[in-house]
Specification:
alpha+beta, 2 domains, five-stranded antiparallel beta sheet, about 25% helix
Length: about 220
């Protein structure tokens, strides 16, 4: 087969094209041309994530999940918030790692806390940043103070808000009901949590749950605890 209608058309398929394609594939697999292997990742059963929760005027607790934080929903639910903890983090979004040996060692740990602590010390990276944490908490507290005072969160009327683009992340949300402005918020609580997925029971085991920040939200003033 030739590209073009004239006799000078270039061959599209044939021995020369096949040999060229084979050489390119072999060079790529050998990491000599480009490195597609390093663009991939491995899923692991271990994940450490931040969880945002709110306590309402009635005393009920709600999950502040990333779909409520639109247009920042791609941040709440990925790796955003690691600057709030001094725990070493060894994975990316939802437990992905870029090293097959690390993935195998995480899976082999079976959720054992001692084994995971060793892996965190060997592979983990601490993202703690007090300035970023303070700015983040100030933003949250100011935002919910304004919401408590009746500020609109969306420029669209309520009957048109379903027209927004869907959130970009799907994952295990959490055990608390979603916050949907059911009532005023008095406190924001941010947790650092570690989960391990049990393939035999198809369940997530909670390994750690530490409160890293609490914010009191009032109608007129905001004060961190």
């Amino acid at each position: 087969m030739r590209i073009g209608s004239g006799p000078g058309g270039a061959p599209l398929f044939g021995l020369a094209g096949g040999v060229t394609a084979a050489v390119i594939i072999l060079l790529a697999c050998a990491d000599l041309l480009w490195q597609p292997f390093h663009l991939g990742w491995w899923d692991s059963p271990f994940t450490a994530r931040m969880q945002w929760q709110v306590e309402a005027a009635s005393g009920r607790s709600y999950g502040l999940y990333n779909d409520f934080m639109c247009p920042y929903e791609r941040e709440y639910g990925r790796v955003f918030g690691y600057f709030l903890t001094d725990e070493p983090v060894l994975h990316g979004h939802l437990g992905i790692v870029w090293d097959q040996d690390l993935r195998d060692r995480l899976a082999a740990s079976g959720g054992d806390r001692t084994a995971l602590l060793l892996l965190k010390s060997q592979y983990g990276h601490i993202h703690a940043d007090s300035r970023q944490a303070d700015a983040h908490c100030h933003y949250l507290a100011a935002m919910f103070t304004a919401l408590n005072q009746g500020a609109r969160k969306s420029p669209l009327p309520s009957h048109l808000r379903r027209l927004k683009a869907p959130g970009g992340q799907l994952f295990h949300w959490g055990d608390l009901p979603r916050y949907r402005r059911q009532e005023p918020v008095h406190r924001i609580v941010i947790h650092y949590q570690e989960h391990f997925y049990r393939a035999d029971t198809h369940e997530f085991e909670l390994l750690a749950d530490v409160v890293v920040r609490e914010l009191e939200v009032h109608f007129n003033t905001v004060s961190p605890l």
